[in-house]
From TrEMBL:
<dbReference type="GO" id="GO:0006508">
    <property type="term" value="P:proteolysis"/>
</dbReference>
<protein>
    <recommendedName>
        <fullName>Peptidase A1 domain-containing protein</fullName>
    </recommendedName>
</protein>
<dbReference type="InterPro" id="IPR021109">
    <property type="entry name" value="Peptidase_aspartic_dom_sf"/>
</dbReference>
<dbReference type="Pfam" id="PF00026">
    <property type="entry name" value="Asp"/>
</dbReference>
<feature type="disulfide bond">
    <location>
        <begin position="307"/>
        <end position="341"/>
    </location>
</feature>
<keyword id="KW-0222">Digestion</keyword>
<dbReference type="GO" id="GO:0004190">
    <property type="term" value="F:aspartic-type endopeptidase activity"/>
</dbReference>
<keyword id="KW-1015">Disulfide bond</keyword>
<feature type="domain" description="Peptidase A1">
    <location>
        <begin position="72"/>
        <end position="377"/>
    </location>
</feature>
<dbReference type="GO" id="GO:0007586">
    <property type="term" value="P:digestion"/>
</dbReference>
<keyword id="KW-0378">Hydrolase</keyword>
<feature type="active site">
    <location>
        <position position="274"/>
    </location>
</feature>
<feature type="disulfide bond">
    <location>
        <begin position="103"/>
        <end position="108"/>
    </location>
</feature>
<dbReference type="InterPro" id="IPR001969">
    <property type="entry name" value="Aspartic_peptidase_AS"/>
</dbReference>
<keyword id="KW-0064">Aspartyl protease</keyword>
<feature type="disulfide bond">
    <location>
        <begin position="265"/>
        <end position="269"/>
    </location>
</feature>
<feature type="signal peptide">
    <location>
        <begin position="1"/>
        <end position="16"/>
    </location>
</feature>
């Protein structure tokens, strides 16, 4: 079973990193394409990537959406004895929730369910949890229990989490059972303390930061590191970027260029570094401009390109805090067995951008709570 592990430096056993391997599994989109159901699904459950970042719901409710391209998940355990769950480690939300035995939605019936009756350390909170999605919702109750994200007895005790009682239909196609949010506590629904905040409070991490490496090709190798950075996963210097909003991991982008010409974000724009979004998402006019410059055409919400021309397509460069972060075509073009090649630039809201997995696969991302900064370094 894939599980968390602890890496300690040779010079000092106290310098420990809690690492959770992430598996790159089949996405919901890939499964639905394989079943010939994707065209029907995309109409019934349209993708609204900006729903979870709607400021109207920033406190008291956690909007989310059906990102059918999410593929990375890790395994945690809850309870005593431990019950295992696949979760998306999501830097764009703050709550932990998993399916429970109280849920009979189709989305729960094909996922692991938490049974509080078999855990000796479970305590009922008595509160309710409601999380709005772009095309549905998750409702449930809150409880407390021990959450383990590493071996060797390292555990977060009395962690508040959600036990789902109903889930939106699109969740049944996702490999992950639930979500572990890693954004700021001010975003958390029902005032629940996020897992990482409890990890910091209980002294389980050496530094108040976590970092994410997403492998580009293989199913294995991706990892979330709590308490530090792993130099095995990046090269060159780390660029530290101050947050512009300490709610999400939000930063200021200066511009986006193709072949040295500004094609989007002229004069600056706001972007959220989000492990829980698969694409790079921006305002429709900006995304259309980028896709036009790289030679993509719009079709049914996707931007398609010639699979034989990827090597000739230009880089797309994000200028952030005086540094250049370049995404080559080999990184921003995704190939489907059934639908050809499409870019990883998707339409979103009016002003906000999301730097999702397409970006993070190229740049090792460090989320620093101590200094309220994001660190970016070239991924190996």
């Amino acid at each position: 079973m894939m599980w968390a592990f602890v890496v300690c430096a040779m010079v000092a056993l106290s310098e420990c990193l809690l690492q959770v391997p992430l598996e790159k599994g089949q996405s919901a989109r890939e499964f639905l394409e394989q079943q010939g159901k994707w065209d029907e699904y995309r109409v019934r459950y349209p993708y609204n990537p900006m729903a979870k970042f709607d400021e109207r719901f920033a406190v008291g409710g956690e909007p989310m959406t059906n990102d059918a391209d999410l593929a990375y998940y890790g395994i945690i355990s809850i309870g005593t004895p431990p019950q295992s769950f696949k979760v998306i480690f999501d830097s764009g939300s703050s709550n932990l929730w998993v399916p429970s035995i109280y849920c009979n939605s189709p989305a729960c019936n094909n996922h692991a369910k938490f049974n509080p009756g078999t855990s000796s350390t479970y305590r009922n909170n008595g509160g309710a949890l409601s999380i709005r999605y772009g095309t549905g919702s998750m409702t449930g109750i809150l409880g407390y229990d021990t959450v383990k994200v590493s071996v060797g007895g390292l555990a977060v005790t009395n962690q508040i989490f959600g036990l789902s009682e109903s889930e939106a239909p699109f969740m049944q196609y996702m490999r992950a059972d639930g979500i572990l949010g890693l954004a700021y506590p001010r975003l958390s629904a029902s005032g629940a303390t996020p897992v990482f905040d409890n990890m910091m409070r209980e002294g389980l991490v050496n530094q108040d930061l976590f970092s994410v490496y997403l492998s580009s090709d293989s199913q294995q190798g991706s990892v979330v590191t709590f308490g530090g950075v792993d130099p095995n996963h990046y090269s060159g210097p780390i660029s530290w970027i101050p947050l512009s909003n300490e709610l999400y991991w939000q930063i200021t982008v200066d511009s986006v260029t193709v072949n040295g010409q500004v094609v989007a974000c002229n004069g600056g724009c706001q972007a959220i570094v989000d492990t829980g979004t698969s694409l790079i998402v921006g305002p429709q006019s900006s995304i259309s401009s980028i896709n036009s410059r790289v030679g993509a055409r719009s079709q049914n919400g996707d931007y398609l390109v010639n699979c034989n021309g990827i090597a000739q397509m230009p880089d797309v460069t994000f200028h952030i805090h005086g540094q250049e972060f370049t995404i080559p075509a080999s990184a921003y073009v995704r190939q489907s067995q059934y639908y050809g090649c499409r870019t990883g630039f998707g339409n979103g809201g009016d002003n906000l951008w999301i730097l999702g997995d397409v970006f993070i696969r190229q740049y090792y991302s460090i989320f620093n709570r101590a200094q309220n900064m994001v660190g970016l370094a070239k991924a190996r």
